[in-house]
Design a protein that fits this description.
324 residues; Rossmann fold; 26% strand; SAM-dependent_MTases_sf; NDUFAF7_sf; protein-arginine omega-N symmetric methyltransferase activity
């Protein structure tokens, strides 16, 4: 069977998340430290207040994993701004039956959706941490005077003529396009522009239209062949934030950032919150908290690889974490 790369990636990841525990293979920021989710909870509460405190509104997480981010966010937001939690209708975008079963136990008040289209047409605040990187990409390779598109057949790449218009580039250049992510951001931005709201997108990636292939696979915590054994490994690719920003602006919204995750979390007070928790914890727990914060913020770890971008209505005042 020959499949275009995006179709192969979509099929493989659907099977992977339906049958395997992804957290055996990798760990995400909410699993590393509760402080991550707490800070995002305060961020969404402040954004809600800046939007005029709409009630009710849709508080959405795309790709909620096991629910740690939303649980930590709601706990912190309830302490700081109880009215925010009272006004929030919780919606989770998740298609894995296995993960939905876990999430129903952790967040019994949540409503589940396959995509944005079934979320009620009201003001929306959305969080997406490591969601966009798992959406399927297309890859194009420059061969002589023309572009070729990559397909997958029998665990290897094959190439066919490309019909997509792409800029001129040197021989062998690879360009990736994530049309699914761009469509998601465009639909989200259109709703934010029309109904009000904001969104915070956090993922590893780049800005400025970088070229090169970034498709990768993780299995048992180790790099693996992304084309072998579809459904047994997590497939991801770097997020092109410049194209997502363009999609959001074309849909009528504004963007803030992208900012490096380390700088964003520092601006929200991650170091102060870590010190506060450590002061009330035992020595071992305090050291674990400190190590987790360093992992999230250090440039040599997740601090510079991960980027943070917000989507908001036109003319909205500066959002927390992004400066003036």
């Amino acid at each position: 069977m020959i499949e275009r790369l995006d179709a192969f990636m979509a099929r493989a990841n659907a099977a992977y998340y339906a049958s395997r525990d992804p957290f055996v293979d990798f760990v995400t920021a909410p699993e590393i430290s509760q402080v991550f989710g707490e800070l995002l909870g305060l961020w969404v509460a402040m954004a809600w207040s800046m939007l005029g405190s709409p009630a009710p509104f849709a508080l959405v997480e795309a790709g909620p994993g096991r629910g740690h981010l939303m649980t930590d966010a709601l706990r912190a937001a309830k302490r700081a701004m109880p009215a925010f939690v009272e006004a929030a209708d919780i919606h989770l975008i998740e298609t894995s039956p296995r993960l939905i079963g876990l999430l129903k136990d952790r967040l019994p008040q949540a409503m589940f959706h396959a995509d944005l289209s079934t979320i009620p047409d009201q003001s929306i605040i959305l969080l997406a941490n490591e969601f966009l990187d798992a959406l399927p990409i297309r890859q194009f390779v420059r061969r002589g005077p023309a572009w070729r598109e990559r397909y997958v057949a029998d665990g290897a790449f094959v190439e066919a003529s490309a019909e997509t218009a792409l800029p001129d580039a040197p021989e062998g250049t690879v360009i990736e396009r994530n049309e699914t992510a761009e469509a998601f951001v465009a639909a989200l931005a259109s709703r934010i522009s029309r109904r009000g709201g904001s969104a915070l997108l956090i993922d590893y990636g780049h800005e400025g239209g970088a070229t090169g292939e970034s498709l990768q696979a993780i299995m048992d915590g180790q790099p693996a062949d992304p084309l072998a054994e579809p459904g047994r490994r997590d497939l991801t690719a770097h997020v092109d934030f410049s194209r997502l920003a363009m999609a959001a602006r074309n849909a009528g919204a504004e963007i803030r950032g992208p900012a490096a995750q380390g700088a964003f979390l520092a601006a929200l007070g991650i170091h102060e919150r870590t010190a506060q928790l450590g002061h009330h914890a035992g020595q071992d727990d305090a050291l674990r908290l400190l190590a987790a914060t360093r992992r999230l913020t250090s440039p040599e770890a997740m601090g510079s690889l991960f980027r943070v971008m917000a989507i908001c209505p036109r003319g909205m005042e500066p959002l927390p974490g992004f400066g003036a």
